[in-house]
């Protein structure tokens, strides 16, 4: 994937050079952030990392995707707090779908906190459906752990007919 210009922002592959900035945004956005090392390990293991930047170069958001057998697992999607509610999450989801389709995978799987209704709403509006729950998946402040809602977006099979 090379840089893709989208009006006032562009998508680029995440590289080692992005990781300090990515980790800084992660700390601003999440109570239990990934470490810089988590991102570094993901890139070293061949996962797909995508950065969304404003034309000024400011990091708006990013996502990390891991191919697993026949589907893509969306491990992390984050939009910088100051850039939320402006379509960045949708842009990153579209790029995740583009990558998964380019890899000829059947869909995308993700986990989301039940306590994150804005993310759940974004995923549902995009076409993801809840397919299960992972008990005690996430660390939580006021309880020992929080469950995860497992969501999936399936891609139509080649040659399938239907509204689309």
From TrEMBL:
<feature type="domain" description="N-acetyltransferase">
    <location>
        <begin position="9"/>
        <end position="156"/>
    </location>
</feature>
<comment type="function">
    <text>Acetylates the N-terminal alanine of ribosomal protein bS18.</text>
</comment>
<feature type="active site" description="Proton acceptor">
    <location>
        <position position="111"/>
    </location>
</feature>
<dbReference type="InterPro" id="IPR043690">
    <property type="entry name" value="RimI"/>
</dbReference>
<dbReference type="Pfam" id="PF00583">
    <property type="entry name" value="Acetyltransf_1"/>
</dbReference>
<feature type="active site" description="Proton donor">
    <location>
        <position position="123"/>
    </location>
</feature>
<dbReference type="GO" id="GO:0005737">
    <property type="term" value="C:cytoplasm"/>
</dbReference>
<dbReference type="InterPro" id="IPR016181">
    <property type="entry name" value="Acyl_CoA_acyltransferase"/>
</dbReference>
<dbReference type="InterPro" id="IPR006464">
    <property type="entry name" value="AcTrfase_RimI/Ard1"/>
</dbReference>
<feature type="binding site">
    <location>
        <position position="116"/>
    </location>
    <ligand>
        <name>acetyl-CoA</name>
    </ligand>
</feature>
<dbReference type="InterPro" id="IPR050276">
    <property type="entry name" value="MshD_Acetyltransferase"/>
</dbReference>
<dbReference type="InterPro" id="IPR000182">
    <property type="entry name" value="GNAT_dom"/>
</dbReference>
<keyword id="KW-0963">Cytoplasm</keyword>
<comment type="similarity">
    <text>Belongs to the acetyltransferase family. RimI subfamily.</text>
</comment>
<keyword id="KW-0808">Transferase</keyword>
<protein>
    <recommendedName>
        <fullName>[Ribosomal protein bS18]-alanine N-acetyltransferase</fullName>
        <ecNumber>2.3.1.266</ecNumber>
    </recommendedName>
</protein>
<keyword id="KW-0012">Acyltransferase</keyword>
<dbReference type="GO" id="GO:0008999">
    <property type="term" value="F:protein-N-terminal-alanine acetyltransferase activity"/>
</dbReference>
